[in-house]
Structures are given as structure tokens and as C-alpha cells.
TrEMBL record:
Domain of life: Bacteria
Keywords of the record: Cell membrane, Membrane, Transmembrane, Transmembrane helix, Transport
Family membership noted in the UniProt record: Belongs to the binding-protein-dependent transport system permease family.
Lineage, broadest ranks: Bacteria, Bacillati, Bacillota, Bacilli, Bacillales
Recorded coiled-coil stretches: none
UniProt-recorded name of the protein: Sugar ABC transporter permease
Topology versus the membrane: Multi-pass membrane protein
InterPro entries: ABC_transporter_permease, MetI-like, MetI-like_sf
Main location as per UniProt: membrane
Ranges of residues in domain ABC transmembrane type-1: 76-285
Transmembrane segments: 12-32, 77-97, 109-130, 158-182, 264-284
Length: 294
């Protein structure tokens, strides 16, 4: 059918089709659900009833005034702190494995392997590692004469850091690969010229490596922050939010509010707040990095 049309008309039809179809998919699976989320956040709905009572800003008031809801953000701080350390470690290993280290391809693969594992499988794996009585970590600590009865997942003070350390193990290799790709894009001539000028390794890192991977650091920090805000699988599988709600994260609270307590209106408002916080964090980060880049 298209063959009977002129080249100009064929071109218009093809371009229009390739434009309209992705836009329809985007509107259907992204923009419409987002708009519906905003609409539900102003209602009181149990997820089943056809009636969605309009209650205005009441859900948002509850989000910000109830410490059991908005206060769980403090539990996410552990994931952010460990994520920063994870990025530092990823940069270090990327620099080391970017050199002429013997067996560097094997070590790259070894560090990247945890990332390809299923998140739930990783959680169950570390459930055995952190087990109080028969866990491999406590067994190792007891073997070297340290406290071998620590309740890693049962202590309110550091349970979130224990869970965050799993994320460190799983995602550090992924970040390392990203930094490694950025490092390999830096011309080697720059380092050779710096060596001739007498610059040591630290100065080469500060004045050559760091400026050239600046945008990648910005990207990874954004992923770290959003990942810290959206943690769900680890506390859900390993602790179910315990002990005494100490490991509940904000997304964990959203899921529980919607599917356990059937309050979809409040859960929608919580989701909108999370979306706005992510946008705010991204804006602040872009502002800070743009100033730093200047």
C-alpha cells in the first residue's frame, strides 16, 4: 500500500507512526497512571469500592503530621550513607582495575557478578549470613575471638546499616563498571603529560581523573539517592519491617498502607510526596553540581 504513495508521503507516514506509537505508549503507561495517582491522593478509597470519596488535602496532612509515616525517612538515611561509601569504593576499584593489574578481567567479573543476582535471592542468602545462632558471619567472628552472638537483624540501632551493607555488596560492582567505562574514555596522553610534568598519582586523580568523571559521579549519586529513598525488597524479605518497625522504609510503608490496610488514597498521597522529594533532590543536586562544575 505504501509503495503506491510518493516518497514524501511515505516519509511523513513512517515518521508520524514512529512518533505517535511511542507517545501513545508513554501516555498509557506513564502519564495517565501518574495523573490518576494525583487524583487518588485526594480521595478516600479502599481499592475495591466504586465510590472514591473526595477528601481534599486530608491525606497530605496525615503524611506530614503522622510521625509513623513521614518519620520513617530517617531509616532510609542508612542506605544513603552506605551508598556514598559504596561510590567511593567503586571509584577506587575502577581506578585499580583500569591499570595493568594481572587478572584484572577476572576481578572485574567477580565484583560485577553480585549485581546480576536476583534481589530476593540475595536477601535470602544474607539471611543465612546474618543469622544470630548459626550465621556464617557470627561463626567467623567467634572463630577469631570476637562476639559471635550479635543480632545483626534484631537490633534497632544498626539493623538498617546491616541491610544497607547488602546493597553495598550487590551494587558496588555495577557502579564500578560505570566508573570504569568513564575512566577508559580519558585519553592516556593526559596522564603521560602529567607524569612528564612530575605529577604524582594523587594529583593525577584530582586534576585529570576527577574532572573527567564528574558527570558520571553526578549520575551515580542521583541513582544512590533515589535508590536509598525507594528501598523495599531487603527489609520486606529479611525483617518485614522489624524489629518494632525499626527497618520500615518509606516505600515499605506505602505498600503496607495500600495492600495491608486498603487505604489507597493515603498510599497515593505518600507516593506523590515521594515523587516530589525525588524531583526536589534531583534539582538540588543539579544546582550544586552545576556550581561545582563551574
Amino acid at each position: 500500500m505504501l509503495s503506491n504513495l510518493s516518497f514524501k508521503k511515505q516519509r511523513i507516514i513512517i515518521i508520524t507512526s514512529f512518533t505517535i506509537i511511542p507517545l501513545l505508549l508513554l501516555l498509557t503507561f506513564s502519564y495517565y497512571p501518574t495523573l490518576e495517582l494525583f487524583h487518588l491522593s485526594f480521595t478516600s478509597w479502599d481499592g475495591l469500592s466504586p465510590d472514591k470519596e473526595w477528601i481534599g488535602w486530608d491525606n497530605y496532612k496525615e503524611v506530614f503530621t503522622d510521625p509513623d509515616i513521614f518519620g520513617v525517612f530517617k531509616h532510609n538515611f542508612a542506605y544513603f550513607a552506605v551508598g556514598i561509601v559504596q561510590n567511593i569504593a567503586a571509584i577506587y576499584f575502577a581506578i585499580v582495575l583500569n591499570g595493568k593489574l594481572k587478572g584484572r578481567y577476572f576481578f572485574r567479573l567477580l565484583l560485577f557478578l553480585p549485581y546480576i543476582l536476583n534481589g530476593v535471592a540475595v536477601a535470602y542468602l544474607f539471611g543465612y549470613v546474618f543469622d544470630t545462632t548459626q550465621g556464617s558471619l557470627n561463626t567467623l567472628l567467634a572463630a577469631i575471638g570476637l562476639d559471635g552472638e550479635t543480632s545483626w537483624l534484631g537490633s534497632e540501632s544498626f539493623v538498617n546499616y546491616t541491610l544497607a551493607s547488602i546493597g553495598f555488596w550487590r551494587f558496588m560492582g555495577f557502579n564500578m563498571v560505570i566508573y570504569l567505562a568513564a575512566l577508559q574514555s580519558i585519553p592516556s596522553d593526559l596522564y603521560e603529560a602529567a607524569q612528564i610534568d612530575g605529577a604524582n598519582s594523587w594529583k593525577q586523580f584530582l586534576f585529570i581523573t576527577l574532572p573527567n568523571i564528574y558527570k558520571i559521579i553526578e549520575l551515580n549519586l542521583f541513582l544512590t539517592v533515589t535508590g536509598a529513598l525507594e528501598v523495599f525488597d531487603l527489609p520486606f524479605v529479611l525483617t518485614n519491617g522489624g524489629p518494632a518497625g525499626a527497618s520500615e522504609t518509606y516505600v515499605f510503608k506505602i505498600i503496607a498502607t495500600a495492600f495491608q490496610f486498603n487505604n489507597y488514597g493515603l498510599a497515593s498521597a505518600m507516593s506523590v510526596v515521594l515523587l516530589l522529594i525525588v524531583v526536589l533532590v534531583l534539582s538540588i543536586q543539579r544546582l550544586l553540581f552545576s556550581k561545582g562544575g563551574d
